[in-house]
């Protein structure tokens, strides 16, 4: 099992670096959504190395690369991120979403306690989202974006301690 994880992990690292250097001049920053696409292409290549799907994935990525090069996208320049993102709107969104996340976490703590400390933690995690509280699961899923927004504001904002 460990050899399998090591092998696919090394494939993933190799294909990630290869595709990163292939598309390097089109990536604006680590927050660029295209970086996610490049990493997903690398994972597709690495997970299909043992099957005949590898050639299908490889030729799909090759066709994407050729098409991407033919449309002549503007090359990365030294554009500041402040010009791309409205920081005040991002601050308001981050603060409001953080308040919503804390309030919902406290509500769930009051409603069902900590699932890890119950007699059956697996059942407690599932039964927590019944009787009209399923929409809250989507809010908790969106909390990943809260972390990204806070990291972006920490990097760009002048109020570093406030967002820390």
Gist?
With 164 residues, the chain is mainly alpha-helical. The chain has helices at 2-22, 33-47, 53-70, 81-84, 87-112, 121-127, 134-141, 143-156, 160-163. 71% of the residues lie in helices and 0% in strands.
Mind sketching the topology for me?
Layout: H1 2-22, H2 33-47, H3 53-70, H4 81-84, H5 87-112, H6 121-127, H7 134-141, H8 143-156, H9 160-163
Protein architecture, described:
Helices cover 71% and strands 0% of the residues. The chain has helices at residues 2-22, 33-47, 53-70, 81-84, 87-112, 121-127, 134-141, 143-156, 160-163. α1 (2-22) crosses α2 (33-47), α2 packs antiparallel against α3 (53-70) and α5 runs antiparallel to α8 (143-156). The mean pLDDT is 76.
Key words describing this protein structure:
164 residues; mainly alpha; 9 helices
Tell me the overall shape.
flat
- N to C succession of SSEs: HHHHHHHHH
The whole-number mean of residue pLDDT values reads 76
Give the % helix. Answer: over 70%
DSSP strand tally: 0
Low-confidence stretches: none
Q: Which structural class should the secondary elements be placed in?
A: mainly alpha
Total DSSP helices: 9
Oligomerization state: single chain
**Biggest sheet descriptor:** none
Beta-strand content estimate:
under 5%
